[in-house]
Design the sequence.
């Protein structure tokens, strides 16, 4: 894997480099985003020796950005080890899907078009506890949470996930698993109709969305909800940038699919980089679909914002196909790839990728 030269932040031309323009403007220190990323489940039960083996394998093949979940202590302990291998550690935390406040603040949670709170009737799966993105208290708690993470020594940035509404539509390949044919917006998966959302919308547009015969067809109501997540994210971005740290996100495959499937208008998020989850198997697509998704994202984001194709595949996935997909992603304007998870890569896949 080519090691790009370390670039100083003195207003150099950025074309083709994985560096965010905003970082150049805000940061007082040199910074360069990783070449390629991997998600990893953080656990303090994993031994130092085990982490070292993983980091050695991945860093040699050109993966030098780690997106890990975990708590503050875990990140504090792991950061020096990552540094030894030239790997940047970024704190991967779920953003809107968080059940932890349910007892104290049930009013913070989303309500479906059927009138059910996710606390009583979580959609699809038991851990789907979606906060209401328009709630100001919710916005502050989430932004503070990410801002606090940035104070961890050695942590390079934070990473958003589940930063959207509940799935209105599941990926095509997943619908049969839930025994669903989602050919329209079903009321039990359509959020958020809490008092706060409806009155906030009515304050702007002069009517309650539930007074419409078909709220789904109401464009203003659709756009209002896109805006709620965008505003929530902008609050987090501001809080993280105020701490001079960087912020990235795992988002849905393409901007168009994301708006339609989960009301996630991520091309407007103002993140420093994006890792769209272009998991082709979940959408019953071939691997060329991955680079096409990157092309669509590039067209909406413009030339400068780094995008890394999120990929998910098994150990039997042909190493040659991994190399070919990487090249297609680069040709489509992507900066690299992000693998879910780093531990799932075989020696053969890493060997082939490392040769590029
Ligand atoms: Zn709401």
Sequence:
């Amino acid at each position: 894997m080519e090691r790009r030269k370390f670039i100083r932040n003195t207003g150099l031309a950025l074309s083709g480099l994985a560096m965010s323009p905003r970082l150049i403007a805000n940061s007082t220190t040199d910074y360069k985003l990783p070449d390629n990323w991997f998600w990893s489940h953080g656990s303090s039960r994993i031994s130092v020796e085990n982490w070292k083996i993983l980091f050695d394998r991945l860093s040699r093949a050109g993966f030098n950005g780690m997106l890990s979940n975990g708590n503050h202590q875990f990140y504090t302990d792991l950061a020096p080890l990552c540094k030894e291998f030239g790997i940047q550690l970024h704190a991967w935390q779920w953003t809107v899907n968080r059940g932890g406040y349910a007892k104290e603040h049930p009013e913070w949670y989303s309500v479906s078009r059927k009138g059910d709170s996710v606390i009583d009737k979580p959609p699809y799966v038991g851990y789907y506890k979606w906060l209401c993105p328009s709630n100001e208290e919710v916005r502050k708690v989430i932004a503070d949470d990410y801002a606090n993470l940035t104070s961890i020594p050695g942590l390079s940035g934070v990473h958003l996930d589940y930063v959207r509404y509940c799935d209105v539509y599941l990926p095509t390949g997943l619908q049969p698993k839930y025994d669903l044919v989602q050919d329209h917006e079903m009321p039990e998966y359509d959020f958020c109709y809490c008092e706060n959302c409806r009155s906030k919308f009515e304050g702007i547009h002069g009517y309650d969305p539930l007074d419409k015969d078909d709220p789904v067809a109401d464009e203003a109501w659709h756009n209002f909800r896109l805006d709620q997540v965008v505003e929530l994210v902008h609050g987090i971005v501001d809080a993280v940038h105020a701490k001079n740290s960087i912020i990235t996100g795992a988002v849905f495959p393409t901007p168009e699919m994301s708006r339609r499937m989960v009301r996630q208008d991520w091309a407007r998020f103002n993140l420093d980089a994006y890792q769209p989850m272009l998991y082709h198997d979940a959408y019953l697509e071939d691997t060329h679909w991955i680079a096409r998704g990157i092309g669509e994202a590039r067209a909406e984001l413009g030339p400068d914002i780094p995008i890394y194709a999120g990929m998910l595949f098994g150990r039997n996935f042909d190493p040659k196909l991994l190399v070919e997909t990487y090249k297609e992603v680069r040709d489509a304007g992507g900066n690299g790839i992000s693998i879910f998870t780093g531990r799932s890569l075989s020696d053969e896949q890493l060997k082939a990728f490392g040769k590029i």
In short: The domain at 21-354 is CATH 3.20.20.80 (TIM Barrel). The longest helix spans residues 219-242. The chain has ten helices and eight strands. Residues 1-17, 24-28 have pLDDT under 50 and may be disordered.
